[in-house]
Amino acid sequence: MPTFLESYTPDGRFLRNCFTRFFNQDLIDFFEKRGGRVFPRSNRALDVVSALMGDLKENQVTLIKEKGVQDILIQSGQVEGVQLVHGG
Fold first, then answer.
1. 18 within domain boundaries
2. CA 84 – CA 74 distance, rounded (Å)
3. What is residue 63's three-state secondary structure?
4. What is the mean pLDDT of residues 8-28?
5. Is 82 in contact with 71 (CB distance < 8 Å)?
6. Would the pTM of this model clear 0.70, i.e. be above it?
7. Considering Cα of 56, then 48, then 73, then 66, what sign does the dihedral take?
8. β-pairing, 78-84 with 69-75?
């Protein structure tokens, strides 16, 4: 994981917390449950995006693009929402 993280940021700090909780086996399990494979048979990245978007819809998550995040709202150890930057 350290080598993987260093390819995104100098010390990997930004992604380290996320990936220590949700990394390779969790990601493999996520995609296998949605299509039986880690990468789609079609070899199209759009199919990966479709799987992720389907999961968002199934879990009633609203995707908001082009807005800055000010804070992640956590309650009882779980993410409950995101506070957006005003005017961003």
1. yes
2. 14
3. coil
4. 68
5. yes
6. no
7. negative
8. antiparallel
